[in-house]
Design a protein that fits this description.
ten-stranded mixed β-sheet, 10 helices, binds S-adenosyl-L-homocysteine, binds iron/sulfur cluster
Length: 371
């Protein structure tokens, strides 16, 4: 059976080619065709082996006997070319096995800077069942390959080039799934996105891995000395409250997270970003702010407050403006750096935590393994 050439890592493809009696350096050439610019109009990646011009006919044919080139199929209608350049766009993609994932393109033009951020999915669904997150209600289906992660950016980059003549500047692993439970593929993807060999060339400092708190993964990032940014979805610094919202806390306690973060900072000297979604009456009081302040003393950090994006049938709400202001003021008074990320893309269901595909109707809550 033919195998998807994009499901191979570069070393795996080298091995596979060697087994077919080909020179391993061909793998790097093939990867450049798969993830570099080509064609007119310019697009990322070719769709057929006979477009790989420097391989020669014999190898092109051999490749098409053994492999196929997968592509993400857009599965929604959001792809209007009439978009305003400030609009958040959701892309629903069908994978070769029919599963669906979502990615979001978030334009941000502030302080004279133009940013085009792509929010990528790392898994189909997610096993961690956070109570405020739509993906959490889907349960876990499978990990994405590095190729499937990179291809989300490739598709959107091609689309941006064609319609707006723009370039993806930032990538955040904040779509569906838990990146640190698919760490090898996520790092492989991030390495490709930041490599100078391919079309993207996104600086490592503009790539963010977001985790719900997989302490072992944080330690691994530290030990590998990765250059990507780390965001921790904290949402509460009070153990019982966090565990009630994020069952992953039962596996990795706040104490374990603090210890992993210290290790991360010791090794990388990089600050950490805490994501905190204010939920009215749940994590938005003075004692919550104080717990967050204490937690923030662990390592140098910044705090991103995210507006809660309502999800169907779940009755959390955002706090009133005054209560939110009081929370922020308390953090400011303690000397913390706080940014408030206003909800974007609400109208098209494309904001953080609202990513769930059509199979949403089969909603099931899968509790993580540890409970
Ligand atoms: N699994 C990873 C990355 C994907 S979730 C993680 O949890 O960090 C990306 C971000 O969206 C996380 O900070 C998550 O807590 C947040 N999020 C989830 N549901 C949300 C919602 N309904 N409103 C606002 N943010 C949400
Ligand atoms: Fe998974 Fe992150 Fe959603 Fe939690 S917030 S269920 S970890 S995707």
């Amino acid at each position: 059976m033919k195998r998807d050439i994009k499901s191979f890592s570069l070393p795996e493809l080298q091995q596979s080619l060697a087994a077919l009696g080909e020179k391993p350096y061909r793998a790097a050439q093939i990867f450049r065709w798969l993830y570099g610019w080509s064609g007119e109009p310019k697009q990322v990646g070719v769709q057929a082996f006979d477009e790989m011009l420097n391989l020669g006919k014999a190898l092109q044919e051999k490749l098409s006997e053994h492999f196929f080139i997968s592509r993400l199929e857009p599965a929604n209608e959001t792809l209007s070319t009439e978009i305003e350049s400030s609009q958040t766009l959701k892309f629903l993609f069908r994978l070769t096995d029919g599963k669906e994932i979502e990615s979001v393109l978030i334009p941000n033009h502030t302080h004279g800077r133009e940013r085009w951020t792509v929010c990528v999915s790392s898994q189909v669904g997610c096993a961690l069942a956070c109570t405020f997150c739509a993906t959490g209600y889907m349960g876990f289906t499978r990990n994405l390959t590095a190729g499937e992660i990179v291809d989300q950016v490739a598709f959107i980059q091609s689309w941006l080039t064609l319609h707006l003549d723009k370039t993806v500047t930032n990538v955040v692993f904040m779509g569906m799934g838990e990146p640190l439970l698919n760490l090898d593929h996520c790092l492989e993807a991030a390495d490709m996105l930041s490599s100078s060999d391919y079309a993207f060339q996104i600086a490592p400092s503009r790539i963010t891995l977001s985790t719900s708190g997989i302490a072992t993964g944080i330690r691994k990032l530290a030990d590998l000395g990765v250059k990507y940014k780390l965001a921790l979805s904290l949402h509460s610094a009070i153990e019982e409250k966090r565990a009630a919202m994020m069952p992953v806390t039962n596996e990795f306690s706040l104490a374990e997270l603090r210890s992993a973060l210290k290790h991360y900072y010791d090794r990388t000297k990089k600050e950490v970003f805490y994501e905190y979604t204010l939920l009215a009456g749940i994590n938005d009081g003075a004692e919550d702010a104080d717990a967050l302040i204490r937690f923030s003393h662990t390592v140098p950090c910044k705090i991103n407050l995210i507006d809660y994006n309502p999800i169907a049938n779940i009755d959390f709400t955002r706090p009133a403006e005054a209560r939110q202001e009081a929370f922020i003021q308390r953090l400011h008074d303690a000397g913390l750096t706080v940014t408030l990320r206003r909800s974007r893309g609400k109208d098209i269901d494309a904001a953080c935590g609202q990513l769930a595909t059509a199979s949403r109707s089969e909603k099931k809550i899968v509790r993580p393994v540890h409970t």
